[in-house]
TrEMBL record:
CDD domains: ABC_DR_subfamily_A
Pfam families: ABC_tran
UniProt organism field: Sulfurisphaera ohwakuensis
Protein name: ABC-2 type transport system ATP-binding protein
Classification via Gene3D superfamilies: P-loop containing nucleotide triphosphate hydrolases
């Protein structure tokens, strides 16, 4: 059984086709990058897998389950792009509220506060946080229950360099199955070995990044850009 599976998925927003027959699989424990330009359909795929959207056609499965099932939601951690935690709560209250829903011990809250450098902001309401600190909190919320499957949309946005390095190190050390959406190749190369490349709502390439680089002789960034352009 695959941990993540999409079969001929079509998703529309009104008359706009966001995904057009997308298919790919991710093995359990695998870390995969979802690459593509803005508007390629990356965020839509993560929302489908997180159970926030339904496809018009095709099938989306998380460990063989519909993402809308509670059994699937229990094992998923989801970081949306530009996440917005509960604005009227403070940092600790956000974490403790989600911890209570997830059945997570408060010790885990304290560990993440310290690891992500949020201890000094634990009593600060979200409306007063910088974008970088909101992103740290959003990451903590996604990681809180040590999920089997992590869906991360631009996880390193707004982070300073020391925090970025800590997060990269943590993600690399985890055994979770990960699908990481990004348009920055240098980040993808450090976190994953395999990538799925989207353009105009279609998969234009999927395979091992190292093999792609060996076979083409090009730098990964320029090669990916060419693959995207070729489909337009």
């Amino acid at each position: 059984m695959y941990c993540i599976e999409l079969k001929n998925v079509v998703k529309k927003y009104g008359e706009v086709i966001a995904l057009n027959g997308v298919s790919f699989n991710i093995n359990c424990g695998e870390k995969v990058a979802l690459l593509g330009p803005n508007g390629a359909g990356k965020s839509t795929i993560l929302k489908l897998l997180a159970g926030l959207l339904k496809p018009e056609k095709g099938e989306v499965l998380v460990k063989g389950l519909d993402p809308f099932f509670i059994e699937a939601r229990k094992i998923i951690g989801y970081l949306p792009e530009d996440a917005s935690p509960y604005l009227m709560l403070n940092v600790r209250e956000n974490l403790e509220y989600i911890a209570s829903l997830r059945g997570v011990d408060k010790d885990r809250v304290d560990k993440l506060l310290d690891f992500l450098g949020l201890r000094q902001y634990e009593n600060t309401r979200i409306v007063y946080l910088s974008k970088g600190n909101k992103q740290r909190l959003a990451l903590a919320l996604a990681l809180l229950h040590d999920p089997e499957i992590l869906l991360l949309d631009e996880p390193l946005n707004y982070l300073d360099i020391p925090t970025r390095e800590k997060v990269i190190s943590l993600l690399k050390s985890m055994n979770s199955t990960m699908l990481i959406s990004t348009h920055i190749m240098s980040i993808a190369e450090r976190l994953v070995n395999r990538a799925v490349i989207l353009s105009n709502g279609k998969v234009v390439w999927q395979d091992d990044l190292t093999e792609l680089k060996k076979s083409s002789g090009e730098e990964i960034e320029s090669l990916v850009a060419r693959l995207m352009e070729d489909v337009n």
